[in-house]
């Protein structure tokens, strides 16, 4: 011990013993603390980048797409001149039906000119082209339907609220300004001023556009009339088919694999293949669908039944994997107890295991459905990217009628020339995101509400 | 195993109900993305006015449309193929081999092809020669064939702005590319005298023509495989860009694009119709004659498409940018007679 008291003879000690108090951090501790702080900062930065990207994406979609939910309408008295709609003057519905909707444009044009004169609105340089292109192409078609439904209207003057063209509509959404109107070949400064004058007069209103949700797609000349009605219905039908087919098949397959199948090489191969299928790019399922369902089975193109079958194939692995995970999480003691009191294996599964696994199965199914709802690539190949203006009939016949789908409608609209379609594409994205959000919320709700923990 | 059985039985059920549900009652159309907007406008107006079910129109491109068209006869095949070029002999052969023997060819109008640049950029007054000299892979300098070294538009023609050459041209899958090569590159090649020099250098005449339409690969010309909105987006991000568009697309986007004149002529429906503007092409659709009478409304659709009220001057197609066919009356007769191609 005497050696120890002699500082001269103490052997060189490791550095940590010389640092002294625990309260002052050593260089090494400082380094480790700094590394931890840096790591936290990286994590926060990563989250911040993700949140910023999401905010940017959301705000740009909402900014571009909010306009789709509002639309500009004009209300003027329209004179249904007999010369145009009933040239023979005999009020014969068959004769009147021969006058095509485009001819009714003249009625709106004449009525607008008469209204401008009556209201004493003077616009310098207002040309025939300006009044002719003022209303949407959809307005004459609607007027024609009104007149054909009620031939009494011929010769009368009716107050009509009609869609204006996409350029007029753009003037009240900031898409078209006086400067761009001067450059635009589809509108003019005079038309811009006319629209402003009509707005002051109260004949033009921009209001909520429910038609965007309920009406079908419209052609490139009528961006203002295009809606996502057929696309929503088509997507709904496809989801219905996916649910009807994928849920029972997926659950049956996973119950068999999990509870009954012997563990041998064959089931291992199946298991690996299911995991692989879940990772196969969706376009591959589209190619398969084209070859199997359209060319081989002979199902009609562009129909929800083909889309639904393709998406079913795509969703099955997701459902099987999540169902098996849900079945696995049911503790063996439940099965043992059921078997112990004399239940058969079938009774064990259907009376005890399956009900307990149900929340997990439903969650997996809903997430699989949400994935299928947003899927575009396989639908490109089976003709869903089509211009469809008629609503499919009620199921089951409706499954075989042509329809569109929400994500392909978005794709379709981004390919069109009129700038008003990009606004509607963003509007459709908003609707699609709301649907996805609702489905995910439902999945979370089901899990929270019914899940049991052991 | 159970899943396989279930899948098979599900498929069987669906196949059985499909045969019950069959009997398609609407016309199906597919093909050129240039013709697509016109076909959409016609389909919509046709459904509104005729009482027939609305035709279903798909895009996909001329070649893809004709390929589907030639797959055979029957309700599972399309009735009409849209094309921005004439059907090829090889395609007619395929059609015949698959039983599609009677095809009605309908040429319903013309489409102009324009060069356009950013609205705030300088004006371009191009000639096919300028475009050839700016974009060709090889040009002739002092009688010698050399790789194209032009960096600015002013290098090829002192009257053009001193702006770096950056062109966005349609990719090879587009029908527009063929017209661009034919009407602009080849014409410019001849005009500049390069064709003769290529012929002198290559014994083979075909090789000389191929040299005329070979685009430079040093990044100053970019093939755009997407549709016109993509070309527009590229020009918006690269203000020096000059893009190739359809006339109707340009007409819808005049607030963002400035159009170039070709040989001093500004493209418009009128100048294309009078053939003053040189870069244009006919547009077609092809009707399967064997489907007339089987698919309700097919003949009526074709007749409606080429009627004066639709495809004629002042109709909705011309207001969208179609140049009406001056021979429309002959075309209407062809459709009325169901005269198939020979």
CATH architecture of the largest domain in chain A: Orthogonal Bundle
Percent of residues of chain B in beta strands?
Answer: 15-25%
Main β sheet profile of chain A:
3 strands, antiparallel
CATH fold node name of the largest domain in chain B:
D-Maltodextrin-Binding Protein, domain 2
Order of helices and strands of chain B: HEHEHEHEEHEEHEHHHEHEHEEHEHHHEH
- Quaternary status of these chains? heterodimer
CATH architecture of the largest domain in chain B: 3-Layer(aba) Sandwich
Please provide the count of β strands of chain B: 14
| Mean pLDDT across every amino acid position of chain B | 87
Task: Give a description of the structure.
The complex is a heterodimer of chains A (454) and B (342). Chain A is mainly alpha-helical. Chain A folds into two domains: 69-209, no CATH class; 229-450, Orthogonal Bundle (MetI-like fold), CATH 1.10.3720. In chain A, 63% of the residues lie in helices and 5% in strands. Chain A is built from 21 helices and four strands. Chain A has a three-stranded antiparallel sheet with strand order 2-1-3. The longest helix of chain A has 39 residues, at 27-65. Chain A starts with a helix and ends with a helix. The model of chain A is unreliable at 1-5 (pLDDT under 50). The mean pLDDT of chain B is 87. Chain B has helices spanning 2-21, 36-50, 62-69, 89-97, 128-135, 153-156, 175-191, 194-201, 205-213, 228-237, 247-252, 269-273, 298-305, 308-311, 316-320, 328-337; strands spanning 28-31, 56-60, 80-83, 103-118, 125-126, 138-141, 144-147, 167-170, 221-224, 242-246, 257-259, 261-262, 280-288, 323-324. In chain B, the strands form three sheets. In chain B, strands 1, 2, 3, 4, 8, 9, 10, 11, 13 and 14 form a ten-stranded mixed sheet that branches. A two-stranded parallel ribbon of chain B has the order 5-12. A two-stranded antiparallel sheet of chain B has the order 6-7. Chain B folds into two domains: 22-110 and 281-337, 3-Layer(aba) Sandwich (D-Maltodextrin-Binding Protein, domain 2), CATH 3.40.190; 112-280, Periplasmic binding protein-like II (D-Maltodextrin-Binding Protein, domain 2), CATH 3.40.190.10. With 342 residues, chain B is of the alpha/beta class. Chain B is globular, with a radius of gyration of 23 Å. Chain B has 16 helices and 14 strands. In chain B, α2 (36-50) links the parallel β1 (28-31) and β2 (56-60). β4 (386-387) of chain A pairs antiparallel with β2 of chain B.
């Amino acid at each position: 011990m005497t050696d120890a008291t002699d500082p001269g003879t103490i052997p060189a000690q490791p550095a940590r013993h010389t640092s002294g108090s625990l309260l002052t951090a050593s260089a090494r501790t400082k380094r480790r603390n700094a590394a931890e702080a840096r790591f936290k900062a990286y994590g926060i930065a990563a989250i911040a980048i993700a949140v910023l990207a999401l905010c940017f994406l959301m705000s740009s979609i909402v900014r571009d797409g909010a306009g789709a939910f509002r639309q500009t309408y004009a209300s003027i008295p329209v004179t249904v001149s007999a010369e145009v709609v009933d040239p023979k003057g005999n009020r014969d519905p068959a004769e009147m039906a021969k006058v095509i909707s485009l001819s009714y444009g003249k009625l709106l044009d004449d009525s607008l000119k008469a209204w401008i004169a009556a209201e004493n609105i003077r616009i310098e340089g207002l040309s025939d082209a300006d009044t002719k292109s003022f209303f949407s192409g959809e307005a004459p078609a609607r007027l024609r339907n009104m007149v054909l439904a009620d031939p009494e209207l011929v010769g009368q003057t009716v107050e009509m609220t009609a869609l204006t063209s996409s350029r007029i509509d753009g003037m009240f959404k900031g898409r078209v300004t006086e400067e761009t109107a001067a450059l635009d070949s589809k509108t003019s400064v005079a038309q811009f001023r006319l629209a402003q004058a009509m707005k002051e007069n109260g004949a033009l209103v921009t209001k909520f556009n429910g038609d965007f949700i309920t009406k079908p797609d419209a052609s490139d000349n009528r961006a203002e009339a295009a809606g996502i009605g057929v696309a929503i219905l088509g997507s709904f039908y496809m989801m219905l088919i996916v649910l009807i087919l994928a849920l029972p098949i997926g659950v049956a397959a996973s119950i068999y694999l999990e509870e009954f199948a012997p563990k041998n090489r064959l089931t291992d191969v199946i298991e690996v293949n299911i995991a692989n299928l879940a990772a196969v790019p969706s376009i591959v399922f589209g190619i398969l669908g084209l070859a199997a369902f359209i060319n081989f089975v002979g199902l009609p193109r562009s129909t929800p039944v083909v889309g639904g079958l393709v998406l079913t194939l795509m969703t099955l692995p997701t459902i099987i994997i999540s169902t098996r995970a849900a079945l696995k999480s049911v503790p063996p003691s439940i099965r043992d107890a059921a078997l112990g009191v004399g239940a058969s294996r079938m009774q064990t599964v259907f009376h005890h295991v399956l009900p307990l696994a149900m929340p997990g199965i439903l969650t997996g199914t809903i997430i699989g459905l949400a994935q299928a709802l947003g899927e575009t690539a396989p639908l490109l190949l089976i003709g869903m990217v089509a211009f469809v203006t008629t609503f499919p009939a009620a199921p089951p016949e409706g499954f075989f009628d042509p329809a569109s789908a929400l994500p392909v409608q978005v794709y379709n609209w981004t390919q069109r020339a009129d700038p008003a379609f990009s606004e509607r594409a963003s509007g459709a994205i908003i609707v699609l995101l709301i649907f996805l959000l609702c489905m995910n919320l439902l999945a979370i709700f089901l899990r929270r509400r019914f899940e049991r923990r052991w | 195993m159970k899943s396989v059985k279930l899948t098979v039985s599900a498929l069987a059920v669906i196949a059985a109900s499909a045969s019950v549900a069959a009997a398609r009652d609407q016309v199906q159309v597919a093909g050129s993305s240039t013709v697509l907007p016109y076909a959409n406008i016609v389909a919509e107006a046709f459904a509104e006015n005729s009482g027939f079910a609305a035709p279903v129109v798909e895009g996909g491109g001329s070649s893809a449309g004709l390929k589907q068209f030639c797959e055979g006869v029957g309700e599972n095949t399309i009735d009409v193929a849209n094309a921005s070029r004439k059907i090829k002999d090889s395609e007619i052969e395929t059609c015949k081999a698959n039983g599609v023997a009677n095809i009605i060819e309908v040429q319903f109008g013309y489409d102009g092809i324009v060069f356009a640049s950013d609205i705030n950029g300088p004006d371009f007054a191009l000639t096919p020669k300028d475009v050839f000299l700016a974009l060709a892979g090889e040009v002739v300098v002092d009688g010698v064939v050399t790789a194209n070294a032009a960096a600015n538009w002013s290098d090829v023609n002192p009257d053009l702005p001193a702006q770096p050459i950056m062109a966005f041209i349609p990719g090879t899958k587009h029908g527009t590319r063929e017209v661009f090569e034919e009407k602009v590159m080849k014409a410019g090649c001849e005009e500049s005298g390069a064709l003769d020099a290529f012929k002198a250098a290559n014994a083979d005449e075909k090789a000389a023509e191929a040299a005329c339409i070979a685009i430079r690969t040093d990044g100053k010309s970019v093939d755009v495989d997407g549709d016109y909105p993509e070309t527009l987006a590229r020009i918006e991000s690269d203000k020096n860009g000059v893009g190739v568009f359809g006339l109707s697309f340009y007409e819808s986007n005049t607030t963002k694009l400035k159009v170039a004149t070709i040989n001093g002529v500004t493209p418009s429906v009128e100048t294309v119709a009078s053939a003053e503007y040189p870069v244009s092409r006919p547009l077609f659709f092809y009707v399967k004659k064997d489907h007339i009478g089987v698919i309700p409304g097919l003949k009526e659709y074709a007749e409606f498409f080429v009627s004066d009220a639709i495809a004629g001057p002042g109709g909705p197609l011309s207001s969208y940018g179609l140049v009406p066919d001056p021979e429309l009356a002959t075309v209407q007769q062809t459709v009325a007679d169901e005269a198939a191609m020979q």
